[in-house]
Amino acid sequence: MFNELKGVHRAESGYAGGLTKNPTYKDICTGATGHAEVIKVHFNADVIGAEDLLRIHMVTHDPTTLNQQGSDFGTQYRSVLFYRNDEEKALMERILNELSEEKIYANPVVTTLEPLTEFYPAEDYHQNYLKKFEAAGPLQKMGMNVGYCSAIVAPKVAKFRKTYFDKLKD
C-alpha cells in the first residue's frame, strides 16, 4: 500500500529484529528466528513525512493483538516499530501515546519499539505482492494465497485507498 502514496519511492518487504543472518521466508515462518515481517519505506520527506507514514501504518494493521495479524500467529507477526536513532524513537513514542490516549482501538495498543540492527530484504516474490496479486489471472491467484488476499488484504487495501485517496499517486 505504501508504494501507492505520493512521496514514497519504494516500500520494501523484509525481516528485522532477530538474530538469524539472511533469513528466508521459510525460516521466518518457523517463528524461531526472532525476526518480524516488516516493511522499509524509502520516501521524500518534502512530500510525505515520517509522522504521516507512521499514522497510516498504525491504522492499516492491528496494533492491539500480541504476536498476531489476522489469522497469522507468532512473534514474526508482532506489531513493532524499528527506530534508527533517538529522534525516530521519540516520534514513534509520541504517535503510540496519542493512539492510546485517543482510544482509537477498543483494546490497548501493544506495538513495541525496538532498535533496528539489521534489515534483510524479503525474497523477490514478496516485493510488490499486492500489485502482483491484483494483476494476476484467476489461475495465478490460486497459487498466491487467494483466500487470504481476498478476505483479509483486499478489504484493508480498499479502506486504505478510500481513506487516503488524497495522498495517493496519480
Features:
170 residues; 6 helices; 7 strands; two-stranded antiparallel ribbon; 3-stranded antiparallel beta sheet; 36% helix; 19% strand; alpha+beta
What does this protein look like?
The structure is a single chain. The chain is α+β, with helices and mostly antiparallel strands and 170 residues long. It has six helices and seven strands. It has helices at residues 25-29, 50-59, 86-102, 129-135, 138-142, 146-163; strands at 8-16, 36-43, 68-69, 72-73, 80-83, 112-115, 119-121. The strands form three sheets. A three-stranded antiparallel β-sheet has the order 2-1-7, with no helix packed on it. The protein has a two-stranded antiparallel ribbon with strand order 3-4. Strand 3 (68-69) and strand 4 form a beta hairpin. The longest helix has 18 residues, at 146-163. The relative contact order is 0.18. The mean pLDDT is 92.
- Measure the end-to-end span: 14 Å
Overall 3D shape: globular
| Total of DSSP H or I helical runs spanning 4+ residues | 6
The strand count comes to 7
Structural class: alpha+beta
Task: Evaluate the radius of gyration.
Answer: 16 Å
How would you concisely characterize the structure shown here?
The protein is 36% helix and 19% strand. The protein has helices at residues 25-29, 50-59, 86-102, 129-135, 138-142, 146-163, and strands spanning 8-16, 36-43, 68-69, 72-73, 80-83, 112-115, 119-121. The protein is globular.
